[in-house]
Specification:
Family: Belongs to the SEC15 family.
Shape: elongated
Strand content: under 5%
Protein name: Exocyst complex component
Keywords: Exocytosis, Transport
Number of strands: 2
Structural class: mainly alpha
Pfam families: EXOC6_Sec15_N (PF20651), Sec15_C (PF04091)
Low-confidence stretches: 1-31, 262-293, 791-796
Distance between the termini: 118 Å
Organism: Vulpes vulpes
Radius of gyration: 60 Å
Helix content: over 70%
Number of helices: 28
Mean pLDDT: 80
Length: 825
């Protein structure tokens, strides 16, 4: 005991010393060794922590500390042993007394065991006779009970056999439901009475086989039923869609009558129903007279008795869940097959129609099963099945409709989807996602319409002669006015024959834009959208037609190489009238949708900007082509730059060019004044620039004074043309300023007024302000080289020598001016 307790106490001492008290222990050992050893032993007995530090303080202080500490430790151990011995001596007598008492009790227990054994033996001997008599009584009573039971069971056997015979007859007659009821009676009523007999066990063992046979037979009937409805799904769906279409047609007719009754706007209903009927005829939903054809229902087309019979049989068998699972599993498989599209479905509307009729037929059958049976299908099951089918349908339609490039086919597809959605909505299936899909298809439909109308516009532009529309009588005038909203009091007052300012393409384009609006409106019908939304859709699609399709066609037309200046002028006139007609298109849409243009959210047509952009492009093309034509004439120039004397008349190419410009600017009289003025100014500036470039051409090395004089005659003709005001509206000599650079340059060389030029150079009032020193230097050097070559004996004539020196002096001064300009720059 001391040895187990001592280490624990040593641990306690070690903890205190490890906490920083080792120094204190060492100090105590130095002061009083005996007393200190006593304290250390007290710490060892009082603490349960490591004693390494405490022992280290004992062993590390003095050389003989270990021996003294061990002596003290042995003395302490001897004291504890004495105390333990005293305690044991004190309790020893009580322990001896307890052992003595236990020995006395063992003797009494053995006596009691002998007495109990003897008593049990005597009881067993006395009860043997009673047991024998009791067993005889029990045997007699069992025999009596068995006899009674046999009589009762024999009385039950005949009814059981009769019922089993009846069961066999029902199985032979294929009355399976009655047979199951008979089995149920046998099991619940008759078999329990005779279940212990062997013949009953045989019957009981045979009943599961009979039930399995009934199960197999009824399941076979169900499989035949499922195969039958799979084959007839399209017929069922077609019938259901016909009925939905008849109901919708009736509703539309009733709404039309109400609109007429209350005086509502009939613009939309006057045109669209007839066209919608044509589309519906193409869809194959032609309706016969209701009095001649009886409306069929799903019960008329399908015999559901196999389902009812199979359901009742499985319900009686208690295996209704298995039947439900099998039915739902098979129907889900059929649903996946129905939802699988045919490979050629996007090609014709018949493929889409068959696809929709099969799906409708499938869900019409499920809806009927839902309402006439309890638990076979549930609303949650049909909703889950419909959501799965709807996702697949939307994915299929989204994928296949993207291949449709014919707007008529897209429109027929839309009408099929609407009838499909209305039919299933009538059976309680949610179809909002289908109408959301129709909005996606609507965008695609608009794209196909835009592509189609792009071809229509191209054909119109190709067939147009780009000349004003001639009319010779009142009928022709009214025919044009009926197609295009043109108002001009001055034209009305003119006598026949007369001309409209626009060409034939303008009324044709206006009519086609209206046809596009009608075509776009066809898709918006039956989408269950408000008039405001339809108005917004029409305006947005019309804006796309104007800003993208028509604008692109106009720009492509303007950029075509074979379109000449006359055609471009007519295109500008046409776009002006089409721009003015945009307000009538807005009124046209307003009359269709009955939504005022003053509504806050009404979208405006962007035709104004479209036609303005086209007109600006045509104007730019006019300027470009006019300059190109000028370049063609200028390329015909054939100057003899070394001639000594001028011809006395302007060059032929230049006169032809001026005549051409006069005739062209006569055509420009129908253009807006600013356009004609800009074109005239651009032509004159380009001509002036071309003539200047001709003089300064780097390939031209020599120019004689006679050539300059001849060139001056051509420039005079250009100035005369500019002063003749080929296009009205120019103020003063504005147009002549286009040739001012040439005029001042030629005057400088013709007059040879170099002193004035050099003296006044840089002055605002200089006579030759527009003459650039570099230009003058280039031309002068070409004339200097000509003078040297043409005057071989110039050094023998004093006048020629003086002129040559003057040219060299002017050249030096011009070069100094050019160098000064370059340094300044």
């Amino acid at each position: 005991m001391t040895q187990r307790k001592l280490p624990t106490r040593v641990v306690r001492v070690s903890y205190n010393c490890s906490a920083g008290k080792s120094g204190a222990c060492e100090a105590m050992l130095e002061e009083d060794p005996d007393q200190n050893y006593e304290n250390v032993l007290a710490e060892i007995q009082s603490f349960e922590l490591p004693i390494e530090a405490t022992l280290r303080s004992v062993y590390d202080d003095q050389p003989n500390a270990h021996k003294k500490f061990m002596e003290k430790l042995d003395a302490c151990i001897r004291n504890h042993d004495k105390e333990i011995e005293k305690m044991c001596n004190f309790h020893h007598q009580g322990f001896v007394d307890a052992i003595t008492e236990l020995l006395k009790v063992r003797t009494d227990a053995e006596k009691l065991k002998v007495q109990v054994t003897d008593t049990n033996r005597r009881f067993q001997d006395a009860g043997k006779e009673v047991i024998v008599q009791t067993e005889d009584i029990i045997r007699c009573r069992i025999q009596q009970r068995n006899i009674t039971t046999v009589v009762e069971k024999l009385q039950l056997c005949l009814p059981v056999l009769e019922m089993y015979s009846k069961l066999k007859e029902q199985m032979t007659a294929k009355r399976y439901y009655s047979a199951l009821k008979t089995m149920e009676q046998l099991e619940n009523v008759y078999f329990p009475r005779v279940s212990q007999y062997r013949f009953c066990q045989l019957m009981i063992e045979n009943l599961p086989k009979l039930r399995e046979d009934i199960k197999e037979i009824s399941m076979s009937d169900l499989k035949d039923f499922l195969e039958s409805i799979r084959k007839h799904s399209d017929k069922i769906g077609e019938t259901a869609m016909k009925q939905a279409q008849q109901q919708k047609t009736f509703s539309v007719a009733l709404q039309k009558q109400n609109n007429v009754k209350f005086g509502k706007n009939m613009y939309l209903n006057d045109r669209i129903p007839e066209e919608r009927k044509e589309i519906e005829l193409k869809q194959g939903f032609e309706e016969e007279d209701e009095n001649e054809e009886e409306i069929l229902t799903v019960q008329d087309l399908v015999d559901f008795s196999p389902v009812y019979r199979c359901l009742h049989i499985y319900s009686v068998l208690g295996d209704e869940e298995t039947f439900e699972n099998y039915y739902r599993k098979q129907r889900k498989k059929q649903a996946r097959l129905v939802l699988q599209p045919q490979s050629n479905m996007p090609e014709t509307v018949d493929g889409y129609r068959r696809y929709f009729t099969q799906i409708v037929g499938f869900f019409v059958v499920e809806d009927h099963i839902l309402h006439v049976t309890q638990g076979l299908v549930t609303r949650a099951y049909t909703d889950e099945l419909w959501n799965m089918a709807l996702s697949k349908i939307i994915a299929v339609l989204r994928a296949h409709s993207s291949y449709c490039t014919d707007p008529d086919l897209v429109l027929e597809l839309k009408n099929l989807i609407v009838i499909f959605a209305d039919t299933l909505q009538g059976y309680g299936f949610p179809v909002n996602r289908l109408f959301d899909l129709l909005f996606e298809i609507r965008d695609q439909y608009n794209e196909t319409l835009l592509k189609k109308w792009a071809g229509v516009f191209r054909d119109i532009f190709e067939e147009d002669n780009y000349s004003p529309i001639p009319i010779v009588n009142e009928e022709e005038y009214k025919a044009v006015i009926s197609k295009f909203p043109f108002q001009d009091p001055d034209l009305e007052k003119q006598s026949f024959p007369k001309k409209f300012p626009m060409s034939q393409s303008v009324p044709h384009i206006y009519i086609q834009v209206k046809e596009f609006i009608y075509a776009s409106l066809k898709f918006s019908e039956s989408l269950h959208r408000s008039s405001t939304e339809i108005d917004d859709m029409l305006r947005k699609s019309t804006n796309l037609l104007l800003t993208r399709t028509l604008s692109s066609c106009l720009l492509n037309l303007i950029r075509k190489p074979h379109i000449g200046l006359t055609e471009l002028v007519q295109i500008i006139i046409n776009t002006t009238h089409l721009e003015q007609a945009c307000k009538y298109l807005e009124d046209f849409i307003t009359n269709i949708t009955n939504i005022s243009q003053e509504t806050v959210h009404t979208t405006r047509l962007y035709g104004l900007s479209t036609f303005k952009d086209a007109r600006h492009a045509a104007e730019g093309e006019i300027y470009t082509k006019l300059n190109q034509k000028i370049d063609e004439f200028v390329q015909l120039a054939d100057y003899d730059w070394t001639m000594s004397e001028p011809d006395g008349r302007a060059s032929g190419y230049l006169m032809d060019l001026i005549n051409f410009l006069r005739s062209i600017f006569q055509v420009f009289t129908h253009l807006p004044g600013k356009v004609a003025q800009t074109a005239c100014m651009s032509a004159c500036q380009h001509l002036s620039t071309s003539l200047m470039q001709m003089l300064l051409d780097s390939e031209l090395k020599q120019i004689s004074m006679g050539a300059v004089q001849q060139f001056n005659l051509d420039v005079i003709q250009c100035e005369l043309f500019a002063s003749s005001e080929p296009v009205p509206g120019f103020q003063g000599d504005t147009l002549q300023l286009a040739f001012i650079d040439l005029r001042q340059l030629l005057d400088l060389f013709m007059v040879w007024d170099w002193s004035t030029y050099l003296a006044d150079y840089g002055q605002p009032a200089s006579k030759y302000l527009r003459v650039n020193p570099n230009t003058a230097l280039t031309l002068l050097e070409k004339m200097k080289d000509t003078s040297k070559k043409n005057n071989i004996f110039a050094q023998f004539r004093k006048n020629d020598r003086d002129k040559q020196k003057l040219i060299e002096t002017v050249v030096k001064q011009l070069r100094s001016l050019v160098n000064g300009m370059s340094q300044h720059t």
